[in-house]
Amino acid sequence: AAVPGMVGGMLLHCKSLRRFEHSGGWIKTLLDEAENERMHLMTFMEVTQSRWNERALVFTVQGVCFNAYFLAYLASPKLAHRVVGYLEEEAIYSYTEFLKELDKGTIENVPAPAIAIDYWCLPADSTLRDVVMVVRADEAHHR
Fold it and tell me: Which Gene3D superfamilies match (predicted)?
């Protein structure tokens, strides 16, 4: 999910340099979003204790999505941003369902990983539920 912010920020940066125009803060906003989404991935990769094959899958999907989103953004930045907005809405729904499963006990509410506690300045005794709450809030902010 970090790909759209990175691609959009990169392409706006290049456009700004070509036209000698200020982006109105959009470059920083998109790159900050990419960083935030990267932290979501890093956090959940740590929670799941991902293996090499899962990391390889992330690497492969990232390569495909980067190129696809790059081409989509070149063709229609407005449409590309709309697609991301839709994906963020779906992410909010997914995290809400995740919270329901945590509350039912279907998914174990393990302690929050240190990376999440540090990044979101969470209390030391935070749990996975606390992490999902802040991640869902991030997704709501991104749409």
Answer: Alternative oxidase
Question: Encoding tokens for residue 134?
Answer: 């802040």
Tokens 């890093």 -> residue: 42
Q: Is residue 143 predicted with pLDDT exceeding 80? A: no
Q: Residue 119 corresponds to which tokens in the numbers above? A: 């990044």
d(CA 22, CA 15): 10
Neighbours of 67 (CB within 10 A): 12
How many Å from the N-terminal Cα to the C-terminal Cα in the chain? Answer: 12
**CA–CA dist 116, 40 (Å, integer):** 8
β-pair partners for 111: 127
Residues 66-77: tens digit of each pLDDT:
999 999 999 999
Domains defined along the chain, listed by start: 3-142 (1.20.1260.140)
CA–CA distance, 77 with 83 (Å, rounded to integer): 10
